[in-house]
Design goal:
By secondary structure, this protein is mainly beta. Helices cover about 0% and strands about 55% of the residues. The protein has strands spanning about 5-10, 20, 30-35, 35-45, 50-60, 60-65, 70-75, 80-85, 100, 110-115. The strands form three sheets. It has a four-stranded antiparallel β-sheet, with no helix packed on it. The protein has a four-stranded antiparallel β-sheet with strand order 2-7-4-5, with no helix packed on it. The chain is globular.
Length: about 120
């Protein structure tokens, strides 16, 4: 893991839609669940297509997200998560190509990811 320079807070109050469905070319992330749980998470290496799935990841769960690994997750309502990021935020360079792993409406896994 590299150095981290940005901290993001996610509050999933009242939301059940999947988050993520993207990857980063340059930004490495570490997620930390602080309240509630990640109900479902899917990660796929966009080069090898190796995919991993998890359910019910509770408080204290730490997940390392290397570059070029697409990720999508559903946090249970009321859940909170912190993300440490290796790149500073740049409004002109979002570094978040779309890579659909979970359906935006149902949260169900998409068998073959859809890159945009």
């Amino acid at each position: 893991m590299g150095k981290f320079c940005r901290l993001n807070f996610f509050d999933w109050t009242g939301q059940e839609a999947p988050g993520g469905n993207h990857y980063h070319e340059r930004n490495e992330e570490v997620f930390f669940v602080t309240q509630g749980e990640i109900s479902k998470m899917v990660i796929e290496n966009i080069d090898t297509k190796e995919r991993h799935r998890w359910k019910h990841l509770g408080v204290g769960t730490v997940i390392h997200m290397p570059v070029r690994h697409a990720h999508a997750l559903v946090l249970a309502p009321g859940s909170k998560m912190i993300a440490l990021c290796s790149q500073p935020f740049d409004e002109n360079d979002k570094d978040m190509p779309v890579y659909m792993l979970l359906d935006k409406k149902t949260g169900e896994e998409i068998p073959q990811a859809v890159a945009a």
